[in-house]
Write a structure and sequence with these properties.
The chain is an alpha/beta fold and 165 residues long. The chain has one domain: P-loop containing nucleotide triphosphate hydrolases (Rossmann fold, 3-Layer(aba) Sandwich). The chain contains 6 helices and 5 strands; from the N terminus they run E-H-E-H-H-E-H-E-H-H-E. It has a 5-stranded parallel beta sheet, sandwiched between helices. Keywords: Cell cycle, Cell division, Kinase, Transferase.
Length: 165
């Protein structure tokens, strides 16, 4: 039987460290790393000015990303996706992708408190001033309203980390 790769993807509030952890996992698992923020900024420079813009442009790239990831997994290579899996609908998209090619998956849930996330957002704004307009407490509060905690009943293989790992 042909060996497929494993898909690693992330769930956690804004500022939880999903991008940082994705880079570490990609190195640890010898995996291809795909970052939604990088794809969107390269494909749509200076066009994402609101959360609604983000959602619109994100939806545009999903069919291409899906096919690309499935091709990579199908040849036995691991993939780490720095794309949010913060709602049931988003997680279903990841699961459908892996089930179609009979690949394995792991959802890494960064379960940090709001206070931890806000501290990390403050640090990120200082380190990456280009993100300061988006990485605000108001945006954090807005985006957090959409967050749905993952549940194994969704068919997920979940690894939960609480920020001390």
């Amino acid at each position: 039987m042909k060996q497929t790769g494993t898909l690693y993807f992330f769930c956690g509030n804004m500022g939880a460290g999903k991008s940082t952890k994705s880079k570490q996992i990609a190195i640890d698992k010898h995996a291809v790393l795909l970052s939604e923020d990088e794809w969107l900024s390269d494909l749509y420079p200076n066009q994402i000015n609101s959360f609604e813009d983000f959602l619109t442009f994100s939806a545009r790239i999903k069919p291409l990303v899906r096919k690309h990831v499935q091709n990579i997994l199908s040849v036995g290579t691991n993939v780490v996706m720095d794309f949010p899996a913060n709602t049931k609908k988003q997680r279903k998209w990841f699961l459908d992708m892996v089930f179609d090619v009979k690949a394995s998956h792991q959802l890494i849930y960064l379960n940090l408190t709001n206070e931890q996330c806000l501290r990390q957002l403050t640090q990120r704004r200082n380190e990456q001033p280009e993100r300061a307009a988006f990485d605000t407490e108001a945006m954090f509060t807005y985006v957090t309203n959409f967050f749905e905690e993952p549940d194994a009943l969704e068919g997920l293989n979940i690894l939960e980390l609480n920020g001390r790992e």
